[in-house]
Design goal:
Chain B: GO terms for molecular function: 4 iron, 4 sulfur cluster binding; metal ion binding. Chain B: One of its GO terms (biological process) is cellular respiration. Chain B: Pfam families: Fer4_11. The complex is a heterodimer of chains A (346) and B (347). Chain A is 65% helix and 0% strand. Chain A starts with 58 loop residues before the first helix and ends in an 11-residue tail after the last helix. Chain A has 346 residues and is mainly α. Chain A has a single domain, classed as Up-down Bundle (Formate dehydrogenase/DMSO reductase fold). Chain B has 347 residues and is an alpha+beta fold. Chain B has two domains: 270 residues, 2-Layer Sandwich (Alpha-Beta Plaits); 29 residues. Helix content of chain B is 23%, strand content 15%. Chain B is globular and about 80 Å long. The chains are: A mainly alpha (346), B alpha+beta (347). Chains A and B meet through helix 1, helix 3, helix 4, helix 6 and helix 7 of A and strand 2, helix 5, helix 6, strand 6 and helix 10 of B. Bound molecules: iron/sulfur cluster (SF4) (2 copies). One iron/sulfur cluster binds next to helix 5 of chain B.
Chain lengths: 346, 347
């Protein structure tokens, strides 16, 4: 597959994205350098092959962040109630309700026909993570809001304890299903990270929930929030590193543009927040500052992953190069008459 | 592979691999019509775009509103001023001017490259040249018209490739699998159609199509794509694009018959020495279980803007759910553990 006369032919795939007709202004990342310069591949005028998500920014990244915050807060709140830590209980329950209600608002606002949100509830489809997620979010939000109401009003406390546990049963799923939401797409950087994203989002949720606890619980009660937040931040940092390593070529979207800025900011916040939580838990102000940094780090991760996915979808190299490699691998393994790796499903 | 969620899915019950009858798989009773589709033979396409026009006319698809140059919607990509498939473009004719050194136009692999790229960024068409001269239309094209028509000369040959792209009506359709409202469904003809009165514009189908076909229309917020003229099928008519195609490049019919016709056509072309001819989307063993709309191409799929080895994203969904469930359990356990470790309880 070599050009006989390279002087006549442009280097394949060396495409000026500004020369490509942009698809309306709404796709982030259009016109940026989305290309892997070294990769040899052919394409149709350098145009994207798949369509980038039309999900709205900041609605969807914020929904992801709030869902994570709510999910881990609900378990924190239920555990704090069971172990007699009133201020952490209050923080967890309020965090769960605020996250769930806020997340629902962003999820509805993200729809291009928001008035039809309830159409989500006319079917339950396990093949659609958004359907499953709606069926997780709806009971979670109901229980979390009821729990928060009993917490604030101080009435029906027994009921509040029960609904708090019910919300906590859905909480961890709310925090991790969003990873499936992203990776169950044709977006290469998301799909190929389907083993990493659940851990990344789950640990990010732990950092956010723990951070929220550090901000709002008293020094006397905040030790579990501190441990959770530090463990979450460390796991998140390690998973992010592993994900970028394992993605190989597809990780280039994390190394340029806005995704890089967001991910760098996220790491800085997580490190600062974790260190602050480690040494500063016993002072109200330093605990609160660390908690804020951890929440910011968690949110920035979601924004970074979102941006990286848009850039990946817009880059034809992300489709063509890995798929060509897959074909080559399959041919190689057919020749040696072993099961082709990508036909194992058949 | 059979999906463990059969009981609830109400959509396709298998997630990947060959599937002889996706219609029955989607829950239609056994006496449904045969699966229909398109065979687009690009070797006879003349790029007239009758299919694009017929589709717009019959389906009342609005203006797609894309216009990079601000100048009659010209893209500067040869004679393709449509760009790509989308919510308001259900047939798209791709034009490739395949330039190669003179004398290499033999059989076997044809070295090919796209027209020269790089150069000046597009200018704003509304702005007159600063020196007050006349407007150079070519210069207003994106990239100064560098993608424009290539001409053969003593040193190089130019081969034209034209192909009318369309929704593939996949055997395992990513768009249909992920739709949370059930707006996307499989018809009794085995095709994939959006019900506009159900779609809530969540946009999940858009990045889940491995071919970049379906999109949300900004004016009405709904997702739209080729319906394979569902309404015409019901009345016993062939789809508008196939009806309008003057060269029979777009062939409509029962899928098994189209596949046989395509195999015969491929053998004929190979027999005539056109070794670069290949079928795309014909193989029921491929990553989407084969396409209802498949193609005969004269170059690699990516040259036409098609993914070379698409795989339906839901093939990996059982593993994703497993990972997410395990992580959720781990997160819950970690939070519980945070209350009991460290020995520093209730300081
Ligand atoms: S080509 Fe895309 S839009 Fe068409 S059926 Fe397949 S997944 Fe759906
Ligand atoms: S945008 Fe409409 S058709 Fe597409 S997945 Fe959402 S509800 Fe289904």
């Amino acid at each position: 597959m070599t050009d006989a006369n390279p002087a006549e032919m442009p280097e394949r795939g060396r495409v000026d994205h500004d020369a490509v007709k942009p698809r309306r202004g709404r796709r982030g990342g259009k016109g940026e350098q989305l290309q892997v310069p070294e990769a040899e591949f052919r394409s149709y005028y350098g145009r994207p092959i798949i369509k980038a998500p039309v999900w709205k920014n900041p609605d969807v990244p914020l929904y992801l962040f709030l869902g994570g915050l709510a999910g881990s807060s609900s378990v924190l709140g239920a555990m704090a109630a069971a172990t007699g830590r009133p201020t952490l209980r209050r923080a967890g329950r309020l965090g769960a309700a605020v996250g769930a209600v806020g997340g629902t608002v962003f999820l509805v606002h993200d729809l291009h026909r928001p008035a039809r949100f309830l159409h989500m509830l006319r079917v339950f489809k396990p093949t659609s993570p958004l359907s499953v997620g709606t069926w997780i979010l709806s009971p979670f939000a109901t229980f979390a809001a009821a729990t928060a109401a009993t917490e604030v009003t101080g009435r029906f406390r027994r009921t509040g304890d029960v609904t708090g546990v019910a919300a906590a049963a859905f909480g961890p799923a709310l925090a991790t299903y969003t990873a499936v939401l992203f990776s169950n797409t044709a977006v290469p950087t998301w799909h190929e990270a389907h083993r990493h994203l659940p851990v990344l989002f789950g640990s990010s949720a732990a950092a956010a929930g723990g951070g929220f606890g550090l901000v709002f619980a008293s020094v006397r009660d905040n030790a579990p929030a501190q441990r959770l937040a530090i463990a979450g931040a460390c796991t998140e940092l390690a998973t992010e590193k592993k994900m970028e390593h394992d993605l190989g070529l597809l990780a280039d979207v994390y190394e340029k543009g806005r995704a890089k800025t967001l991910m760098t900011a996220s790491k800085t916040c997580l490190v600062a927040g974790a260190l602050g939580a480690l040494v500063g838990r016993h002072r109200r102000w330093s605990a609160a500052l660390s908690g804020l940094a951890l929440m910011a780090g968690s949110a920035l991760t979601r924004f970074g992953v979102f941006d990286a996915g848009i850039a990946s979808a817009n880059d034809p190299a992300h489709i063509v190069v890995p798929q060509r490699e897959r074909i080559a691998r399959r041919q190689a393994s057919t020749e040696t008459s072993t099961t082709p790796p990508d036909r194992a499903f058949a | 592979m059979t999906n463990v969620f059969d009981a609830f899915s109400g959509a396709a019950t298998s997630l990947s691999g060959p599937l002889p009858d996706p219609t029955t798989d989607a829950g239609w009773s056994g006496d449904h019509p045969k699966r229909v589709g398109f065979f687009t033979d690009t070797s006879v396409c003349i790029g007239c775009k009758a299919c694009e026009v017929a589709c717009k006319e019959w389906n009342l698809v609005p203006d797609d509103g894309t216009d990079a140059s601000g100048l009659y919607g010209l893209t500067g990509m040869s004679y393709d001023n449509t760009g790509d498939l989308g919510a308001s473009t259900w047939r798209h004719v791709a034009f490739i001017e395949d330039v190669r050194p003179h004398g290499t136009a033999t059989t076997g692999h044809l070295p090919s490259g796209l027209p020269a790229l790089g150069g000046t960024p597009p200018r704003d068409a509304a702005t007159a040249p600063p020196d007050g001269g006349t407007v150079d239309l070519l210069a207003l094209l994106p990239d100064g018209g560098a993608h424009g028509q290539q001409t053969p000369d003593d040193e190089r040959d130019v081969r034209w490739l034209m192909s009318s792209d369309v929704c593939k009506h996949c055997t395992h359709a990513g768009c249909l699998d992920v739709c949370p409202t059930g707006a996307l469904f499989r018809t009794e003809y085995g095709t994939v159609v959006v019900q506009d009165d159900i779609c809530n514009g969540c946009g999940y189908c858009v990045p889940s199509c491995p071919y970049g076909v379906i999109d949300v229309r900004e004016s009405d917020g709904g997702a739209h794509k080729c319906t394979l003229c569902y309404d015409r099928l019901g009345a016993g008519l062939e789809p508008a694009c196939a009806k309008a195609c003057p060269t029979n490049s777009i062939q409509f019919g029962d899928l098994d018959e189209l596949q046989a016709a395509a195999d015969a056509r491929l053998a004929e072309l190979h027999g005539r020495g056109v070794e670069e001819a290949r079928l795309y989307g014909r193989d029921p063993d491929d990553g989407v279980g084969g396409d209802g709309a498949f193609f005969l191409l004269l170059d690699e799929p990516e040259v036409y803007g098609l993914p070379p080895d698409p795989i339906v994203t839901t093939r990996d969904l059982p593993e994703m759910w497993r990972n997410a469930a395990l992580t959720a359990a781990g997160l819950g356990a970690a939070i519980v553990a945070a209350f009991f470790t460290g020995g520093g309880r209730r300081k």
